[in-house]
Specification:
Mean pLDDT: 94
Helix content: 55-70%
Number of domains: 1
Strand order of the largest sheet: 1-4-5
Distance between the termini: 37 Å
Strand content: under 5%
Length: about 325
């Protein structure tokens, strides 16, 4: 996308400030309903597990909404001061099973490298190129196929990331990031232990597991479809441009209003990547008031095609499925 002489930085800057009352209201209408629904789900075990499962669906929606607030805090866009963002982020990090400073660090890298083929692998859903996959050893191919399978990626795989992978820091983590992992784990151990002491481990798992499965699956799907859609943007570092990565490599995921509310407007992801300092509740306004950002929306139906994307084809400059490998094999045999 060409921007000509339009100064998009000046446009997004008008929306890149939080309003404390709106942020606090979002905390209240997200955190309180989540814990109320969690308690109701627990009490419903006495009636029937079918009712418990029904209640865990909206509870998972509020967990996703809490993660959006956590996400804004990581960007320093939810409150006016870094201290307020950090404190809220640390608290919500326990609720969403994610160490605040560790995730903040990796997510910042994601924003700086999204769409850059030479800087993949941190804070993103890893995508191999066709050539990389063909050249990979068999065991790496098997692991990649398992990881990219929708039946794994959006179910148990997503839950493993939040419940297990987030319990460890990465090799490039600093002291603050490592400490956030340790203290989040301690807080989780204490909170889960306290809950199990009062209601028993069976009741805890019967309520918490379906919430985690639904919320983590939905969260990973949102993150995935925000960059894995057709057409999207990937370039080698020498040709990579920040604006194009935001506008062409991040989707405008148009969801029904109720899902847009639960997902904190994160569907306006192209604007978010241009300016992560815009709080989630101002993304839609920024979109509606500026024709520059009104790109072709990705509908829910169209987004389902993303389930079949597996690799990036550098020659075609598009995401492709496994079937493209047969074409490459035939060309190789012909040559």
């Amino acid at each position: 996308m060409s921007i000509g002489k339009i100064r998009w930085q000046a446009i997004v800057a008008k929306y890149a400030y939080p309003e404390t009352w709106r942020s606090l209201w979002q905390v209240f209408n997200s955190v309180i309903p989540f814990f109320v629904l969690w308690y109701l789900a627990y009490r419903s075990l006495e009636i029937g597990y079918w009712l418990t499962l029904l209640i865990t669906i909206p509870a998972a929606g509020f967990m996703v909404r809490m993660f959006i607030i956590f996400h804004d805090c990581c960007h320093g866009s939810f409150f006016r001061t870094p201290l307020a963002n950090d404190r809220m982020g640390l608290l919500l990090g326990v609720a969403v099973f994610t160490p605040y400073f560790e995730w903040k660090h990796s997510h910042a890298i994601h924003h700086a490298t999204a769409g850059d083929l030479d800087r993949r692998g941190i804070g993103d859903v890893y995508t191999m190129t066709v050539e990389e996959y063909i050249a990979a050893p068999w065991y790496k191919k098997v692991g990649y196929r398992i990881m990219r399978s929708p039946l794994i990626l959006f179910t148990i795989g997503a839950t493993i990331v939040f419940a297990i992978t987030h319990r460890f820091w990465t090799a490039n983590s600093g002291k603050r990031e490592r400490n956030s992992v340790i203290w989040t784990n301690i807080a989780l151990l204490g909170f889960i232990g306290w809950t199990i002491y009062h209601i028993g481990w069976q009741a805890y798992l019967l309520v918490e597991l379906p919430i985690l499965l639904i919320a983590c699956g939905a969260g990973v799907w949102l993150f995935y479809v925000q960059h894995n859609f057709d057409p999207t943007y990937w370039e080698r570092h020498k040709d990579w441009q920040f604006f194009n990565a935001g506008m062409d490599g991040s989707s405008f995921y148009k969801l029904p209003k109720v899902l847009q509310w639960f997902t904190g407007n994160i569907g306006f992801h192209h604007i978010h990547h241009l300016s992560p300092k815009i709080p989630n509740y101002k993304l839609e306004k920024c979109h509606n008031e500026n024709p520059l950002f009104q790109i072709e929306p990705l509908t829910f139906g169209a987004s389902l095609k993303s389930l079949f994307f597996r690799l990036w084809d550098e020659k075609r400059k598009q995401l492709v499925g496994w079937s493209v490998l047969k074409q490459y094999r035939r060309k190789t045999q012909t040559v």
